[in-house]
Amino acid sequence: MFSTNLLCLLYLLLALIMEFMLCVRSTPIRSFEHIGNSIEEQPEDVLIDLITRYGQTIMRARDDLENSKRTVDFGLSRGYSGAQEAKHRMAMAVANFAGGPGRKRKVDIRNIKD
Fold it and tell me: Span of the secretion signal (predicted)?
């Protein structure tokens, strides 16, 4: 008997919770209209000035990039053959390095004078 009353109470509590969940109202979409659009509130001359300054900054950065002579060029802008050439040059530089890959030269200890 006790478990039946407890089970009925749990069912009733669950039904009330479900009913409450269905009745809860969410915030309507229209409530955010008072925030407004910050771009529309700005004067046109300020926006035009801002766009002009950003454009000048981008043009200046592009000119600096094109005029820089000390950039590393791996040949990627020249296509596949340019990239191959760059890989070949890097491999040759590593091979010519004293500690690089390749055949190690043996030092003849007998010929070294004290």
Answer: 1-26
What letter would DSSP give residue 101?
Answer: S
Tokens linked to 102? 């390749």
Please tell me the distance from the alpha carbon of residue 27 to that of residue 35, in angstroms, as a whole number. 15
0.90 surpassed by pTM = no
pLDDT tens-place string over residues 57-88:
888 887 776 666 555 665 556 666 777 887 88
Asked whether the beta carbons of 49 and 42 are under 8 A apart, the reply is no
Q: How far apart, in Å, are the Cα atoms of 91 and each of 59, 80, 83, 84, 105?
A: 36, 17, 12, 11, 19
